[in-house]
Amino acid sequence: MELKIEGLIPDFVAEDFFPARLTIENGRIKSIEKLEVAPGTLPFILPGLIDSHVHIESSMLVPSEFARLAVVHGTIATISDPHEIANVCGLEGVEYMINNGKQVPFKFYFGAPSCVPATEFETAGANLDVASIKALLTRPEIKYLSEMMNFPGVLGQDIEVLEKIKAAKDLHKPIDGHAPGLRGEVAQRYIDAGITTDHECFSREEALDKLQRGMNIIIREGSAAKNFDALIDLLETYPDQMMFCSDDKHPDSLVDGHINQLCARAVARGISIFKVLKAACLNPVHHYQLQVGLLKIGDPADFIVVDNLKKFKVKQTFINGVLVAQNGKSNIKSIESEVINHFKIRPIKLSDLEFLPPSPAPENLQVIEALDGQLITNKIEISTTHLIDAQERLNSNVEKIF
């Protein structure tokens, strides 16, 4: 059965749009026929949007339900790091994510979690050693080695860390990075180890330093960490080295929008639509070698239809030629999912949360300062005057008192 659809197609070489009719057959683009039609009468047909780094678990949804929401906003694929479920359930958790994602028409590309547990100080539910990582990387569903958070281990030549990196290199699979604040010579050493991306840059200067050293920078704008405004202007100069991601996307914000919101904001900043589409669509496909179509004859029919290139409100989303969303409604049906849960903890008592400082109580304490819109924290010293109660217990104070 053939499907025909007309619209304005991007030409990334000429950096222009041309009116055309797509013919889709058996899930692929059979032909692209140029039309003699007034451009203003047609919608835009664009490659599908890709979240280039996300922990599906942060959405508090299983992959199949995440897909139901994401396709409404034109997202057709994700580069998904199952670190969080692996940290609790190990390989069983990774297997669960892969199998659940396969049950819906959406393109999930999972990585092998490189740092489970994240640090030696963590009490985790599992430990993915070198053998586990090698086993995962041999699977076709595993496209890359997930973010190497242990950058001190990379810099310090930790044997296990280097073995995991080597396993990915041997299979020609990319290695994702995680190195907030790393710059200069130490950043170069991290890159030289074979790590190709970073989504943790929180300043323009840091991102620029890594871009100039050949690294790919993923602009993160999620529910917690927000780095879009700091980094987006670099896309104008480095359109072939940048991508978009959410990292952590809570369900309420996923309802409102996804990568399409970043496209709209980038265009509003005056950045060329073709550079924006490279970051949102093309670069992830090329970097991770994804089986995702880019509006070429013979490609999988993965694309979206939008009315204009300012708001990026998605009218239709197609994956492998299947209409998976239309006019704000998902066509992906909910499925019954098995339950996987290794969460075990005894009841928490108030005394478990109490902290008795040394007696006599110190005048000042070193504390962690959380920063709005960032995952990095500050180390500061505050007075205990307003924190010690009559029983000499240390209590939190939500008011800013320093």
What is shown here, in short?
With 402 residues, the chain is an alpha/beta fold.
Descriptive terms for the model:
about 400 residues; alpha/beta; TIM Barrel; 2 domains; eight-stranded parallel sheet; five-stranded antiparallel sheet; 18 strands; about 25% helix; globular
The order of strands across the largest sheet is 5-6-7-8-9-10-11-12
Helix/strand structural class: alpha/beta
The CATH class of the largest domain is identified as: Alpha Beta
CATH superfamily of the largest domain: Metal-dependent hydrolases
CATH hierarchy: architecture of the largest domain: Alpha-Beta Barrel
- Mean pLDDT, to the nearest integer, reads 92
Quickly count the helices: 13
Word description of this protein:
With 402 residues, this protein is α/β, with parallel strands linked by helices. The chain has two domains: 45-330, Alpha-Beta Barrel (TIM Barrel), CATH 3.20.20.140; 346-402, no CATH class. The chain has helices at 63-70, 83-89, 91-101, 130-137, 151-155, 159-170, 184-192, 204-212, 228-231, 251-256, 259-268, 273-288, 350-353; strands spanning 2-11, 16-25, 28-34, 44-47, 49-54, 75-80, 107-112, 142-148, 175-177, 197-198, 216-220, 242-245, 303-306, 314-319, 322-326, 329-330, 364-370, 377-383. Strands 5-6-7-8-9-10-11-12 form an eight-stranded parallel β-sheet. α2 crosses α3 and α11 runs antiparallel to α12. The termini are far apart. The model has no long low-confidence stretch (mean pLDDT 92).
